[in-house]
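Worked example 3. Consider a protein that binds magnesium ion.
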Amino acid sequence: MPQEPTLIIDVQQVDKTFSVKAQNVQVLRNVSLSVYRGDFIVLFGPSGCGKSTLLHIVLGLESPTRGRVKVLGRSLYEQLDEDERADFRKQHVGMVYQQPNWIKALTVKENIMFGLRLSGLTSRDAEPRANAVLQLVGMQEWQDYIPTELSSGQQQKVALARAIVTNPDVIIADEPTGNLDFESGQELMTLISTLNNQGKTIIMVTHDLEYLAFARRAIQMFDGQVVQEIDDPAAYVQHGGQIFKRSTVPTTLSL
Ligand SMILES: Nc1ncnc2c1ncn2[C@@H]1O[C@H](COP(=O)(O)OP(=O)(O)OP(=O)(O)O)[C@@H](O)[C@H]1O
Ligand SMILES: [Mg+2]
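Given these inputs, the predicted complex is written out as structure tokens:
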């Protein structure tokens, strides 16, 4: 019998308002999002539509003005305080940003081991895990480099290795391809997709529609709202900043 999908992130009717110079600016409106184990969700939409804010709320970094956020069954803002949320994040989430943040005095491998060492693992226990993830992303030959000596594409592969070394329940990536050329972007997406096929749950933000096809689900945001959920993103093509379902592409477009 097929197993019931496990809901690991449950965002219900979230609003977020920031106060800027005594004015309230509503950045998210009634956003709901369900993420199941094994999902690969791409969240897309124009700059400023609230993608990063939504991720921050899911990460426990920013409390919603209204609504409920449950991660792995825990109500982040009702059951946990700030320190507990930080621990929870370290334990359960791997993060990748557009710009990786390196400890500059450490090598690639030491950077990957750093989080494990902080959580109490000895070098002897941490090193084989770092070796394994370096191999997974094809960067083992670069382990003794300082990360900033690598190309942006290589650094993002190492950032991905660092995100998965703790064996998190979910990987959250905010524009991980934002600084990459087309080829490095495709390579990173292929790698992320491979991790997903091996069972990792991924939520990724992008405004590059090229990457939709890698995901299992795509969620479009506009002006603080979820405006479309797409269950078969591979069936879509992008043209001129819009997406079209392949079967409905206007014949006047040469794609
Ligand atoms: N801490 C904050 N205080 C005030 N306004 C904020 C804050 N964080 C975000 N905003 C505003 O919320 C809106 C959404 O920002 P957000 O960073 O979520 O957009 P985004 O979709 O990630 O955009 P991009 O694609 O450019 O990264 C923006 O108008 C931004 O100015
Ligand atoms: Mg953003």
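Take a moment to read the result before moving on. The first strand starts at residue 7 and ends at 20. Residues 51-52, 174 surround magnesium ion (ligand 2) (CB under 6 Å).
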